[in-house]
Each structure stands twice: as C-alpha cells, then as structure tokens.
Write a structure and sequence with these properties.
Length: 907
C-alpha cells in the first residue's frame, strides 16, 4: 500500500543506516547527531556553526570581559544509530508489529542516549576547566555549565569578542574561531558561546488594531476568540482534550489572571496551568508576554478540556539559545505530555543546528508531537529560521479564516498574507516588513522520504530539499488578553502552532479512549493522507492566495493539494481525527443528510441508514442521543462485539417534519461509545420552502361579444384559503376571438405558501348587428328610389349597401329591396342582411298632340309606353318618348287632313 511505503521510508530521512552509502549532507548530519564514528587519542575536533558569517565583515569592539560569567549548554551525541533508525521505521510503519509501540524516555536513554560514562566524562571535562555544573539531565543529552569567560575561552580554545549587531540596536558576542575539543570527547555541540541570533516570538501586532478583513469572528470587530476555532475546525466534535496536556516552549513569562480573564470572556472552562522553570526563571514577564499568553489561550481554545497546559519557561537572565536547549530536553523527558508547540525561533548558522534534532527524534520515538511555527515573513528567501525546517517536527503555516456568521462555522480560507506592514529588521533573516505565512525550501536539510511524491512542478517545491510548511491554521485577526489586563488583536503562525497542538490533544484523547497509542510524529501519516483518497475529508485544502512579496516574487502560490504556503491545509474536524486515530466505534457514512422540500412535504431525503461496527479488541456499548423533534431513530443503544455483526440505525424524518414552518432547521444526532465516552455527532439539515397552492380553473364556455366577465368565467379555486386577482377583472368585455384569462392567487398563509398563478382560454364569438328597416310606403311608377325607401338602421356603426341602389326607378308592382350591412367593427361584429317590399303603382299617361304646319307632333309622359298608329294609310310607324329628352320624339304625319287612330299600349 502507498501509505505503508511512505511510513516505511520516512525514518530513513531521519537517520540513515550506517551500512548504506550516505549522501554527503546526510552523512554529516548522521555524524553531527551521533558524534564521530571513530577518533584517535590526542586529535582535536572542530565544532562548527558558532562563528556567525556577519562577524567576518565587522570590526570587533573588544573582548568580552574575562570575569563575566556565562551559562552554556553542552549537548552529547546519541548512540546506536542503526538500531534507532530501524526502530523508528517500525514505530511508524502500520504493517509492523511494533507500530506505535513507543519507548519511554528512560528506555530511550538506556538504548540510545549517551552512556553514563560518557556523561561523566563531559562532567569531568567541565570540572577540570574550572566550569561549574549548573544542571544535569536524566536524558544525559545535555549538561548545563557556568563559568568565567576566561575559563570558557581556555576550555574551548576561543576568544570571545564583542561586535555591533549589523541589523539590531545591540551588541553581540561571538568566538573568533570555531571551538575545538579533543576528538574522543563525547561533545556534540556547545550553545551559549555567542548571542548573535537570539530566539524571538513570531507574534505580530497589527498597527492601530485595524479592523480585520474578513471580519467574521465572534469578538468585537470580528476578531477570532475561543470557540470560533472549534466551530471552524472541529464542528460537532465532543472531544475536548480531556486527560491530555499541551506543552509550550516559552522564553518569557505571563500573568495567570490574563488567562483566567480570557477563559471567562470566551466562556471556556478553567484549565490548570503548570509552570516548568527550566532556568529558575522568576519573571516578571518581559516583552514576550503577549506571545506566551497567546500560546496558552490558543491551546485552551482548541482543547478546553485539557488536564493542564504546561508552560516550559525561561527568561532573559540566561542566553535564550541555551534556554531553548534546556526546554527541549525537559519536554522530551516529560512522557506524560504528548503534544508540544513552539512559536519561537531564530536565524540559524549555515550548517543545520543539528543538536536540536536529537530531541525531536527522541520525541518521535517516545510518541510525542512537536509543532513549530513556520515564520511570518512570507516566502523564505534566506535560510529558514531554526528550527522550522527540521524534518523531525511538524512545521505550521498560517491562513486567513472566514466563518459563516460570527464564528458560527467554517466558510473558507486563504493564505495569510497581509503585505508590507513594516517592523523591518525585527527579524534578522526575515525582517522584510512583510507579514504572511512562512514557507519555502530548506537550504540545509534534504527532502525527507515522506515528502517524496508530494512535491511537483505545480506546487513549486524542491524534489531535493526539505519543503515547509507541513500544515497550517488560523494566523490572522486573533484576539488575546495579556500583560496584566491588556488586550489586542494579533497575527502570526505563532497563533497556528499552539492551535495544532490543541487539535492533536483531541486526536490523542480519542486514541487513549480507544486503548490506542498516541499519534506521535504525524508527518508520515499526514503526507500519506494528503496523497490518498481521504485527503479532502481530513483537510481543508487551501487553494487561494500566496505568500509572495516584493523580495520573493513568484514564490509561492496556493495550489490544490500540498503547497509552500499552507502545506496540506487545515484540519477538517472529525475527518482528520479519525484518520489519525480511528475511533473503535466506526460509523458510516460520515455525515447526516441534507434534505429539502415544501411546507408539508414531500422532502428530497427522508431517511439515512448508519452502519456501526467495532474495530476494538473488546466489545463496546453505544448509545444514541437525539433531541430533534423532527427526526426519529430506529434504535437508541446497543452492543457491538469485536469484529462481529454491524448494527444498522435508520435516522428518518417523522410526521413532525411535515408541520415545520418555512425555514432552515439543523439538528444533531450523536452516537457515543460508552467505553471511551467519545461521541460522534452527525448534523442533519432540513430546509422547508414555501409550498405552491394547487389551483383548479376549468376552461369556461364560449360567450358572445358584449357579455361582461363574471363568476361563470372567473371561478378559479385553490386548496388553501386566499384571494384571487383576475386579469382581466370582473365586468370586462373582451373582444371576439380567443382570450387568455389569468389569475394571481395570494394565500392567506404567506409564510408557508407561495403565491400561485393560473390561466385559461375563453372563446368570444362575434355578435350579429341588429337591423331595423320598416316597409316603405308605395310609390307611383316613375319615382326614383331615395332615402324615403332606403332608410335601414343598425344598432352599431357601419355602412349599408342597397340593392337596387338609390335613384333606381322601379316598375309598377311589388318590388323587393335588400341591403347588406358592413359593421365598422369587423372584429367583434358580423355582417348582416335585410329586405323589405316596395309597391310601385301605375301612373296615368298624358298624351300631347300638337299640329305644327302639316305635321302632328305627339308626346307623352310614360317612357315605357309605346303607341301604335292605325287607320292612317298615309302614315305608318310607332312612336316612343324618352323621359328626360330635350323634347319628345316626334313624328310628322303627312296629310294632316287624314284621320288616324292611336292605339295605347297594353300597360
């Protein structure tokens, strides 16, 4: 399996075997941690990394007075390196029977620590050079001594000179050459021969306490406080860190009343504080008081049920680099504490400060986790501060968090990068004035095997050297109380490291409850998770933002998966907890359902089955807690045998869900393992939307134009009470044709029901115009038709087309007059026809006879009449008259003295 191979390889990057051919750096690292492989008596050995490079460019101010007293820490090398490397491989290989079978500090010392004889040899060396033994350590890895400068110079063959610091307003001292000791003397390193690089806190105070962006925490102006961190990174997790302790590396003091005030402000329980004064530090707190308070408050905020927060303290009365060593030794010897955090660091020498790595390896062997802030100056372009790039600890970067509501739940994250906010030179090697998540590539450590495969061109990492950070957490806009009653918002990866230590306490609480060992050094596990199928369920992958600045353009950008801004990202609650330390009560799926539907239902999801199994060697009892009024569970408790049959619990919506008013409802069902009291909560979300009323509106019967709309047409009904708004409205007269009637229904209950609309079509037929045409009075033949006869009327405007038309002279007798009516509104009215009867009576014929010379001139008034001439042999023909002619047609009858007879026509 991929995860097994990563675990099995991981340790070789920490301590390679003596039997293999080692790359140059790893070989030097091996020698530095374990000491020389062989030495001849009388030879001298150089201890490198004590002369700062800057000293070669500076003019000494003078010698450190010989009568001054200095406290030094002498570290001794480990032994049995091959056996230790093999053990570490087995401890972090899930396939090994020794997986997570850690050593106690005493066992580690017995098998791999300096021998009692070697320790006594170094003690005798110190005594023979007039140096006082200040403190001995059970680990035998460190010996604290004190002596006059002159004696120290003689013992290590150096001269201690003073210089003006090139970037800080202070003087420093350093040896003129690297110290030397006899080659067979079991000394690995000496700390305290100089103070060029002084450990400092990485906390940053935003100028003027400016308002955070985004402002989404629960404290005033949106700063993050207390339970905001658990809501974002451990939602629904019942684990509180009970039974666990968090250890903090601190090089200053704090006021306990500030911690109590923070707990009250954030509504957190009171967590006991234990101080371990490794250098007899008595205070009062100095300039680092805000860092110390921050670290304590963050650990409690993430794990409010801790048995204690153990503060390993040292103060400014000693060389802080020496105190750093003293604290690490005390931490590695405190086997009851399983998670540690450090927010302090300092620029390292050109060679790795490998004397620190021995303690980190010891912690890994003892099952302890160590989290180190990665730095706050954006991408590292200088050597990374000590000890952030050590491959034997977990390096923690920073994010800017956005929550839903005021700290209610996780919304999103981006890389913490606030740009240029000043405070330059406050950090030698990182004092660029830019504030952002520290990340980059180590200049001294080769890539550990558990990083191989995770580094590629997309994340801009190195395939040859160690990359940081490993993980990240909130590092911006955090509210703290400190300094005996003060408060402020702070930023920095120093916020993130103690939060991770607190989160790991939750993991180890679950491990302890299930009878399992602690997670120890988590890097092999998280890199396996990051490259596996469960990555997104274990981590929030930060894919937006960068830690670039003007001095590191192009370095680096957030990308999917691992990156040099936030590592693998931030913890995703129970997903990561269960991945690192599986809870014996295994429940699938890992989340409740999300359902939605209208008021009264139906809903998109009505039930979900959970499968419960037991992976512990002993039976376990479980119980279910359900306080929801709208959820029901098929069972509420049971017993699971080891490897036995699974239990299936169905969680479903009940009848009460149908009565919920419109809104979003969230409820939690918790399964508790009664053996270890670990509760697993599953969130169910039900969104009830407005229901759509059911409308019924039948298509109405057709109406004739002119009929107003009424209840026979506007008769829609609904299944719930409410009002109807019709368009067109009542009493509207519609045009002929197909008309669309619509309605908007407004329910009386506007909370649970939405408005509804409907429509139907209504056919309106054309109306027939009403004609009125009275029978006209009889006329005498010869009278032309006119308005007295052609006088039809209609009830609507329009035009009349008569037949016969006006001016026509009809013949005698009964005549039929007809009309076609064309309405002006041809949309709504049809054409109409009508007729009447008109009697034309015969008119008397008037004949006029005149004698004109020898001619007889005849004329008459009836143009239709034709006269015939008889009994007039001398005259023949017919005579007609055309009405309207200038004069009647005439005919000259020759022989006026003759007699003739006119025969009138038949009519």
């Amino acid at each position: 399996m991929k995860s097994q191979s990563l675990f099995s390889k991981a340790v070789f990057a920490i301590f390679p075997l003596r039997s293999v051919v080692l790359p140059g750096f790893l070989l030097s690292l091996f020698i530095a941690v374990f000491g020389p492989m062989s030495a001849r008596a009388g030879e001298m050995r150089v201890l490198r990394g004590h002369v700062p490079a800057a000293a070669a460019l500076l003019q000494p101010l003078g010698r450190l007075p010989g009568t001054n007293s200095l406290r030094l820490a002498i570290s001794l090398p480990l032994r049995n390196g091959e056996a230790l490397a093999n053990l570490l491989q087995r401890l972090y290989d899930p396939a090994s029977p020794d997986y997570h079978h850690y050593l106690t500090p005493a066992q580690f010392t017995e098998r791999f620590g300096p021998t009692a004889q070697d320790y006594q040899t170094v003690i005798q060396f110190a005594g023979s050079n007039g140096l006082e033994i200040v403190a001995t350590r059970e680990s035998r890895m460190l010996l604290d001594i004190q002596g006059k400068v002159s004696d120290i110079e003689k013992a290590f063959h150096v001269t201690l000179l003073t210089y003006q610091h090139p970037t800080e307003a202070r003087q420093f001292y350093a040896p003129d050459v690297e110290p030397t000791v006899e080659a067979d003397l079991p000394i690995l390193d000496i700390v305290g021969l100089g103070d060029f690089a002084v450990p400092r806190p990485m906390l940053h105070v935003k100028p003027g306490n400016t308002k955070p962006v985004p402002a989404s925490g629960s404290q005033t102006n949106g700063y993050y406080l207390g339970s905001d961190f658990r809501h974002a990174y451990a939602p629904g997790v019942s684990l509180t860190g009970a039974g666990q302790m968090v250890g903090l590396l601190e090089l200053d003091g704090y006021y306990s009343n500030d911690i109590v005030s923070y707990e009250k402000l954030a509504n957190l329980p009171n967590v006991p504080l234990i101080n371990v004064d490794v250098t007899n530090y008595t205070g009062p707190p100095g300039s680092g008081v805000d860092e110390v308070s921050l670290d304590i408050e963050m650990a409690i905020a993430m794990a409010p049920g801790l048995a204690a927060v153990v503060v390993f303290q040292a103060g400014s009365t000693v060389n802080l680099a020496t105190a750093f060593q003293d604290i690490l030794d005390s931490m590695a010897s405190s086997n009851q504490i399983k998670q540690f955090s450090s927010s302090w660091g300092y620029p390292g020498p050109p060679d790795p400060n490998t004397n620190l790595d021995g303690w980190f390896v010891k912690m890994a062997t003892d099952g302890q986790s160590f989290f180190q802030a990665s730095g706050d100056g954006d991408a590292w372009v200088n050597p990374i501060m000590v000890p952030a790039d050590s491959p034997y600890l977990t390096s923690v970067g920073g994010t800017s968090l956005t929550t839903n509501g005021s700290g209610v739940s996780y919304a999103s994250e981006t890389v913490w990068n606030e740009g240029d906010l000043g405070r330059r030179n406050a950090w030698p090697g990182n004092g660029n004035g830019y504030w952002g998540s520290g990340g980059g590539v180590s200049t001294v450590y080769t890539i550990p095997s558990w990083q191989q495969g995770a580094i590629n061109s997309a994340n801009h990492g190195s395939t040859n050297m160690r990359n940081i950070p490993d993980v990240a957490l909130t590092a911006a806009d955090v509210w703290i109380l400190y300094g005996n009653g003060k408060s402020e918002s702070v930023s920095g990866t120093s916020c993130a490291a103690p939060l991770w230590a607190g989160f790991t306490a939750l993991v180890n609480q679950q491990a302890a409850g299930g009878g399992n060992q602690t997670v120890g050094f988590i890097n092999p596990a998280i890199y396996a998770l990051g490259q596996g199928a469960s990555y997104t369920s274990a981590f929030h992958d930060i894919t937006t933002g960068n830690n670039t600045n003007a001095q590191s353009q192009g370095l680096y950008f957030a990308v999917p998966g691992y990156d040099l801004c936030t590592g693998w990202g931030t913890p995703n609650g129970a997903g990561l907890i269960n991945a690192l330390s599986p809870e014996p009560l295994q429940i699938t799926p890992s989340a409740g359902f999300v359902s939605s539907g209208p008021f009264g239902g139906p809903f998109s999801v009505a039930n979900q089955n959970f499968t419960l199994t037991n992976i512990a060697p002993a039976p376990l009892n479980w119980t279910l807690a359900n306080t929801s009024l709208w959820l029901a569970a098929s069972s509420s408790s049971g017993t699971l045998t080891s490897g036995g049959a699974a239990a299936v619990v169905s969680v479903s919506l009940n009848a009460a869900a149908g009565n919920l008013t419109v809104g979003a409802y969230t409820n939690t069902v918790s399964f508790t393992n009664l053996n270890d009291t670990v509760a697993q909560s599953f969130q169910f979300i039900l969104t009830v939307s407005q229901a759509a009323p059911l409308l019924n509106w039948s298509t109405p019967s057709a109406v004739t134009y002119g009929s107003a709309l009424g209840s026979n047409q506007l008769d829609a009904t609904a299944n719930v009470p409410g009002s109807f708004d019709y368009d067109p409205s009542t009493n509207t007269v519609l045009n002929a044709g197909t008309n669309i009637l619509s309605v908007i229904f407004t329910p009386a209950d506007t909370v649970d029901y939405s408005s509804a609309t409907g429509n139907v079509s209504l056919s309106v037929t054309m109306a027939a115009p009403l004609l009125n045409w009275s029978t006209p009075s009889a006329i005498t033949y010869g009278t032309a038709l006119g308005p007295n006869q052609l006088d039809a009327t209609a009830n609507v405007p329009g035009s009349f087309d008569y037949n016969p038309s006006a001016g026509t002279v009809l013949g005698p007798g009964a005549n039929t007059l007809s009309v076609i009516f064309i309405p002006a509104d041809t949309v709504d009215y049809s054409s109409a026809t009508g007729n009447v009867s008109l009697v034309v009576s015969v008119a008397p014929i008037a004949l006029n006879i005149q004698l004109v010379g020898n001619d007889v001139v005849l004329s008459w008034n009836d143009p239709a009449s034709v006269f015939a001439l008889q009994a007039a042999p001398a005259a023949t023909g017919t005579f007609t008259n055309v009405p309207g002619a200038a004069s009647p047609y005439t005919n000259a009858i020759t022989g006026a003295q003759q007699f003739f007879q006119l025969v009138a026509p038949a009519n």
